[in-house]
Give the backbone structure.
Amino acid sequence: MSDAQTTPHETIDEDRRDFIHIATAATAVAGAGALAYVFIDQMNAASDTKAASSLDVDVSKVPLGGEIRVLIGGKPFFIRHRTPEEIREAEAVDVSSLRDPQTDDERLVPMQNGELNRAILVTSGSCTHLGCVPVGPAQGNTGDFGGWYCPCHGSHYDTSGRIRRGPAPANLPVPDYNWVSPAVINISL
Amino acid sequence: MSGHASTYEPKTGFTKWLDSRLPVVRLAYDSFVDFPTPKNLNYWYTFGGILAVCLMTQILTGVVLAMHYTASVDSAFASVERIMRDVPYGWLIRYIHANGASMFFLAVYIHMFRGLYYGSYKAPREILWILGVVIFLLMMGTAFLGYVLPWGQMSYHGANVITGLIGAVPVVGDSIKAWLMGGPSIGNQTLQRFFSLHYLLPFMIAGVVVLHIWALHVPGNNNPTGVEPRKDPEGLKQDTVPFHPYYTVKDGFAIVVFLIIFAAFVFYMPNVLGHADNYIEANPLVTPAHIVPEWYLLPFYAILRAITFNIGPIDAKLLGVIAMFGSIAILFFLPWLDTSKVKSMRYRPVARQFFFGFVVAGLLLGWCGASNPDDPIIPMGSDKLVVSYEDANGNTASQTYEEYEAAAEFREQKMAEGVDATMTVDKAPAFRFVHLAQLLTLYYFAYFLVILPLLGLRENPKDEPASIHKAVLGHDRAAPAPAE
C-alpha cells in the first residue's frame, strides 16, 4: 500500500473503491435475501396440505336437532340440522343488539335453485376467541342461547352461530361452501 | 471481576504448553476457582448454579428422549407411551424431563425474585439482567414447544390457544399464524417443526447462558447489601472470598438439596404438576373443558384473560395479548424504570413492602390463571333460577326461584298447560376471579411503571453499610457501639 502512495502511476481511485464496496454489499444483501426467502417460505403450507382443503358432505344424514362435525385440513366445521323452533329463535333476534350484527339469512348460502335451506346451518367450529372447539347438542350443552357454548372462556353462541355473550369478538364464521345437490354441500377452506 | 489479574500458574509441562496455545484452563481457573466473590452471599444466590444443573439435566434427558420419540401425529402419542412402558428406564428419563421443566421454572422464578429484591438489575448489571430476561423468554418458548410434543389433548388445544393469540394481531396476524403452523391448522407439519425447534432452543439458551455468565464476571456478583466490594487490594480481600472452595461448596450443597426435592417429585408424584387430559390423545374435535397451561405460565395466562374490555379501537382480545407480552417486555426496561440508587431492598423499607406485594400478586395471578375466570371468589347473594314463559296475554313473564326443585316443578306445570317455558340461571353479582386478575394485573404494571419510578425519587432509604466487610461484622450502622 505504501507503494501506491509513493508511485505516481498508482493513485487511489476513491470512486472506484466506493463502487466496489457498494456493489459487494448489494450483492451480499441480495444473496442473503434470496436465501432468507427460501428458509422463510418453506414454513408455509406445503402443496399436499393445501390440496386437502375441501370436502363434500352429505347433509341429509344430519339428524334433526343435531349436528355433525367434520375436519377439513385439520379445522373443525359444524353442520347443524336446526329444528323449526331453533330457526324461529335465530330469526327473532333483534340484529341491532348483536355484537357482530348479521341476520340469520346472511349466514346461509342459497341452494342451486336460489332458495335458502334454513334447516342446515354450516359454521366454523373454532371459537373466535382463542380457537377452542365449542360444545353443542351432542355434548349436552348448547349454552344460554341454544346454539353452542365454548367451555374454554365461556362464550355463548345462538342457533345461528352468532356470538351473544362471553369474550369472543365475532360470530362463528360461515365457511366458503356451495350446494352441489339438494343433499350435498362442498366446503372449502 | 474482570479487573482482577489472573492468578493461574500452569505447573506441568503439558499445562504450560496448552496455556500458551488455548488458555482454557486459565479461563476456568479465573472464572470458577480464584474468582473474588462477595463473602456475604446467602442461599438465594445459589439458584444460578442450580439453574445450570437444570439446563444440563434437560439437555441430557432430552437428547435421550429424542432417540425414542417420533414426531408424527399418527405415532407421537404412542411413542411417548412406548417410552413409558417399553424403553428401559424410559419412564424415569421422561419423568425427569417433564418434572425437570417445572423445577427449572421454579428455580428461575426464585432467581428472578432474588434479582428484583437485591436490585441485581441496576448499573453496572443491566446487560446481565437483560440477557437473563432473554433466557427466560427462550425458556418459555422451549417449554411451550415441548408441551406440544406428547400430542395429548392439552398439548393440541393449548397450542391452539397460543397460536390463536398471534391471530389477534391486526392485518398480518392470520398469515403469520398460518406460516407458523404450516397450514390452516395445527397438524403433522406443525408437530415436526415444533420438535425441531424444541431441540434447537435449549442450545440457544446455553449460548445466552455463556453470555450471561460473561456479563456476570465483568462487574462480579451483586450481594445482599447491594454495596460493591471495595476496589483497593486490602478492601477487596476483606470483602470477597475466592469462588472455590467457598461457593463451589455452598452451591453444591444447595444443588443437592434441590435435587432431593426434584427426586421427590420424580419418584413420588411425577404427574402432580401435569394434567390428566394430556394422557388422552389429541382430538381436534373435542376441546377439554378446562384448558390451562402448565403452572409456570399461569400468571401470564391470567393477565391475558384479565383484559375483557375494549379500549378505543383495540379489542379485548388484542389488548389481552398486548398485556401478556407487555408483562414480560417490561422487564427489559426495569433497569431504567427503577430510579433508586440503592440496590438492596434491605435498605428500602417502603419499597420492600411493595416488593412483597408484587410476589403475592404473582402467586395470586397464578391462582387466577388456574381458575375459571367466571367463578365467584366472594359471592354477593346466591344464583337464582328464572323460569320464563308466555302468559295468557302473549307477554313474556317470569318467575324466580332459589331452589331447583321448585323451579323445575313450576316449569313442568307450565309445560303441562301447553305453555313453552324455559329455565335460565340468573347469576348473582360476585367478586369473581376475573376481577381479582384485573386488580392484580393493574398492580403488576403499576409496580414497574409507577411505584418503582416514583419511589426511587421520593422514598427515604436507610443508610447502606460502608462495606460488605463491615456489614458482615455487624458494624454497618452509624449507631454508637454497645458498651464494652
